[in-house]
Amino acid sequence: MRDILPDVERWRARGERVAVATVVSVAGSAPRRPGAKLAVSEKGEISGSVSGGCVEPAVIETALQVIKDGKPQMLEFGISEEENFEQIGLACGGTIHVFVERLDW
Amino acid sequence: MSALYEELKQQLAQERGVALATLVRSSSGQGIGAKLLVFPDKSFHGSFGLPELEARVVEDAEQAIWIGEPGTRLYTLGEQTFEVFIEGFPPPPRLIIVGAGHIAIPLTTFARTLGYRVVVIDARAAFATRERFPHADELIVAWPDEVLARMDLNPSTAVAILTHDPKFDEPSLKVVLSRQVGYVGAIGSRKTSQERHERLKQQGLTDEQLSRIHAPIGLNIGAKTPEEMALAIMAEIVASRYGKDRTAILDWTRK
Question: Is B2 on the interface with A (CB under 8 A)?
Fold first, then answer.
């Protein structure tokens, strides 16, 4: 939370709405631990991370949707090394859940 | 409408402990995204609309403030299940050193390097000087037990009692052991520690309280110089912060 605050504050000062994505659970090995956050501004700027970069594009897309409709979403990303090789997945295996919400609380 | 966010930001800026609980799943699909901001005294702001769930989450969130390991917990109320993500934001760790002697000087330096706020307390003005402690965040010349009694002592606080003088050490220990601090250690040989233990017991401290004192203080690394003793103490404080016991320290097969 502390790492994304300066950027979030900057965006809010410009009057932009913001979504925050948080890793809420991890099974197996994953690049970031629960609590890791990615903030996304209305204009698509980002701050922080929820993985090593592999799931960020999908999270950003969802975040922009959540900024518009205000409905929080739970995303699941998982991989068994081969089957998801060409799809979105985590580099090192494991499953993560990412909760995406608009910062309106 | 960002009342909770503003309040969270303020708690973090003021370096006070706080936890944030978010309802991330519910069997009914209702209430997703609802939040509670939980304070160290178990008061809270925000709502899940279910007082029974709130009461249970607040208990867990208060503990999470000090542990700082975020995670999702499952709650069941009758037929309904809820998943709540709880993240604690502990204040920065703080080390209070009672006794501004020769070990306190390198201990202050080590603690500062490791990100601790350092407070040095000694009733003897000749010891607690800025020249001796240029890096201490606070230097207080006063009776340590009186100062400690007025301080916000919490699980992010470590206390190292280093005066070697029972008239300072023992009243300080009594104050510290009446609160929930993360670590308390007191200087003295095994014999001195045992004698102090007996005296404090006679003065009404419980076995549970006395068992919380790390004494002799520090890990047994063979320290001889004040710097090495400070290292042994600081290593023990870090180990205790992460819940390591003395026997696990060299055992990489144990968490």
Answer: yes
pLDDT digits (tens, 9 = 90+) for B97-126: 999 999 999 999 999 999 999 999 999 999
* Separation of alpha carbons B219 and A28, rounded Å: 34
Rounded to the nearest 10 degrees, what angle do helices B3-13 and A5-13 cross at? 130
Nearest chain A CA: its distance from B77 CA (Å): 21
Facing B85 at nearest CB: one of A1, A24, A105: A24
B152: in domain: yes
If one counts the domains in chain B, the total is 2
The CA distance from B165 to B52, in Å, is 50
Closest CA to B182 of B90, B44, B251: B90
Q: Is B8 on the interface with A (CB under 8 A)?
A: yes
With an 8 Å Cβ cutoff, are B32 and A72 in contact?
yes
- Distance (Å) from the alpha carbon of A86 to chain B's nearest alpha carbon: 29
Judged by CB atoms closer than 8 Å, whether chains meet at A97 and B4 is answered as no
The residues facing B71 across adjacent strands are B86
* pLDDT one-digit tens code per residue, A15-51: 999 999 999 999 887 778 999 999 999 999 999 999 8
Q: Among the three residues B89, B104, B135, which one is the final residue of a domain in this structure?
A: B89
The predicted model gives B65-73 an average pLDDT of 90
